[in-house]
Amino acid sequence: MTLYIYTHSLFLAISVLPQRGFSTASIEDARLISNFGSQIEVRLAMKTVLNSEVVVAYSQCPRKAFLLFCTKEKGTPHEYVQIIEQRGRATRRKYIKTLKQKCPDVQPYSTDNLKKKSDFLINAKLQAGGLEAGCSILTKVKGSSSLGRYSYEPTIFVGTHRISKEQRLELAFVAHPLCLY
Length: 181
Prior knowledge:
The protein is built from 6 helices and 7 strands. It is an alpha/beta fold and 181 residues long. A hairpin with a 2-residue loop joins strand 6 and strand 7.
């Protein structure tokens, strides 16, 4: 499945591999940043990167995404959002600690470790083509890619028991910069 995201001055195609176990986002989730106009052109000219926070914000409210992308003010997250993020961080820490005990080849993310075929890469900050996405864990899987006879699948942690549309969209967005390596 490919998600096509159109903006006033930018076109993105996010490829998602459902056969690899990625959660896929629907086409309606792909209506991203369509009304930013000249503000997005100015920001892109200034080398501002589009991150997953802005993409997810647009699925909730175009104005929220505009404010995140075009202003420096962040505001204060709602208490519920803070609790969910805290639970996600706690789950992530616990999982990575268990993973390090079970698997010796858990490395911090770097382009060198990506090319060294490490089984797990943690704390990845993927940047490619004006996009930036954070990912908790990259897991090596069989399959061909530009890296060789293996590729990586992203993992994100959430603080809820169910996966929301916004979380599926975030995962799809994380997969795109990864495909560009």
